[in-house]
Recover the amino acids of this structure.
């Protein structure tokens, strides 16, 4: 059984089926088992048949149910590739007056082709020596049309490189920078309060540079270099004129100081173009500093006294030293309710007194100065108050148990607590280790190594 492959032409990139008909018949002889397009010869298809017969057939290719081409092919019962053709011409005999109703010139019939295949009654001029040997279509001498000046035009076209092709010009017309523009101000100043709106404008053009509306409203996004997407700050697009689109971007007083990138996408005549633009959110001064402002500040400065006029300054320069403040304290003491009835002063030069939030005076007291804290201040009432506070610490205040063994240099509270835990809490002992636990009986507070040698028992430090 032989396989016949028929090559034929059709529009490239189609999915086709092919059917064979007997020439002049409406009956399908065979449908191709496969139709494939050549890899490099785009538009050339190969249809595979199996022994439809040795005859001339009519091949019709279909895309779905739509016929896309019609060819003739002559097949034999051999495995081979056959070429499709439009009309088979066996021979042309004698002169031809007309073909399919098309009338040719009167002397066309005398045109002949000899046995070598050469065209008769044609004279070619090998060398042209005069203008009369070269004619234009109107019979005039070529030299009168192709002048030196016109020849120079061709040289001018190739100055600096090859002449731009139609594809080059079309590429320029399709450049995004020529078809869409996007603009806004360079800086967006963040307001002191509220918000401020700034305009972003896009324009769209056709291939000839004329303003034209996009196929649909262009899309615009805003992205902050720190914040990320800021498209929520963009208002809806308006189209106030042909090819003009505007958005309002709102900058709040709390906006992040950052660079903002705009990305535009516009579709014009079914082609999508993109463009980007940048701006910067800034935080500038709320008002301009003027010469008037400087004059007013200078006037305030001129009213300030110089250092030599500061009352009570000991230094010749007028600067204050620590003793100057003490010297200005009232001899009768402070008013009751401010710093209290007594002022505590350190024996050294550190005389800083801090008033706490509770209205108490806090100071670094090294010793009681004579005449400042007297015996009258340590009466029975004062001693009773001290006794109450001590009893409160001992009898009322609660202290949590230790989680670790206190160091040799630790507070009395921790040392007492450790002794209490040794006496109260669970403890295990082996031949080598004693272990002290917290109140829960499972959490280890510390361990002590222990050993026995020659009847001497030794317990090491807890750690």
């Amino acid at each position: 059984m032989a396989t016949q492959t028929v090559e034929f032409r059709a529009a490239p990139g189609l999915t086709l089926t092919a059917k064979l008909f007997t020439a002049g018949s409406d009956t399908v002889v065979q449908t191709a088992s496969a139709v494939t397009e050549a890899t490099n010869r785009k538009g050339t298809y190969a249809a595979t048949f199996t022994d439809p017969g040795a005859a001339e057939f009519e091949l019709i290719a279909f895309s779905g149910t739509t016929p896309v081409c019609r060819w003739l092919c002559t097949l034999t019962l051999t495995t081979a590739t056959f070429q499709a053709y439009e009309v088979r011409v066996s021979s042309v005999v004698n002169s031809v007056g007309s073909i399919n109703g098309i009338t040719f010139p009167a002397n066309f019939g005398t045109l002949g082709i000899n046995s070598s295949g050469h065209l008769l009654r044609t004279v070619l001029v090998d060398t042209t020596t005069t203008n009369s040997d070269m004619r234009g279509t109107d019979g005039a001498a070529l030299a009168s049309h192709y002048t030196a000046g016109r020849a120079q035009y061709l040289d001018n076209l190739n100055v600096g490189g090859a002449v731009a092709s139609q594809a080059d010009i079309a590429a320029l017309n399709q450049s995004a920078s020529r078809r869409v523009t996007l603009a806004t101000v360079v800086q967006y100043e963040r307001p002191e309060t509220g918000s401020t709106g700034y305009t972003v404008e896009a324009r769209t053009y056709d291939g000839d540079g004329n303003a034209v509306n996009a196929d649909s409203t262009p899309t615009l996004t805003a992205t902050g270099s720190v914040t990320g997407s800021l498209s929520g700050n963009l208002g809806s697009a308006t189209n106030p004129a042909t090819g003009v689109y505007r958005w309002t971007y709102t900058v709040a007083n709390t906006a992040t100081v950052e660079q903002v990138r705009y990305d535009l996408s516009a579709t014009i005549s079914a082609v999508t173009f993109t463009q980007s633009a940048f701006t910067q959110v800034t935080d500038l001064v709320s008002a301009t500093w003027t010469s008037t402002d400087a004059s007013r500040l200078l006037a305030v400065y001129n009213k300030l006294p110089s250092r030599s006029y500061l009352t009570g300054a000991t230094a010749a320069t007028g600067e204050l030293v620590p003793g100057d403040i003490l010297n200005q304290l009232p001899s009768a003491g402070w008013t009751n309710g401010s710093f209290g009835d007594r002022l505590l002063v350190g024996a050294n030069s550190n005389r800083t007194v801090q008033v706490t939030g509770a209205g108490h005076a806090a100071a670094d007291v090294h010793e009681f100065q004579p005449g400042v804290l007297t015996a009258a201040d340590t009466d029975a009432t004062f001693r009773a108050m001290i006794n109450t506070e001590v009893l409160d610490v001992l009898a009322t205040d609660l202290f949590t148990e230790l989680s670790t063994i206190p160091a040799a240099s630790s507070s009395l509270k921790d040392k007492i607590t450790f002794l209490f835990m040794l006496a109260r809490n669970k403890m295990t002992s082996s031949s080598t280790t004693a272990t002290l636990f917290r109140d829960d009986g499972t959490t280890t507070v510390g361990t002590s190594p222990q050993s026995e040698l020659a009847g001497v028992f030794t317990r090491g430090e807890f750690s």
About this structure: Residues 339-349 have pLDDT under 50 and may be disordered.
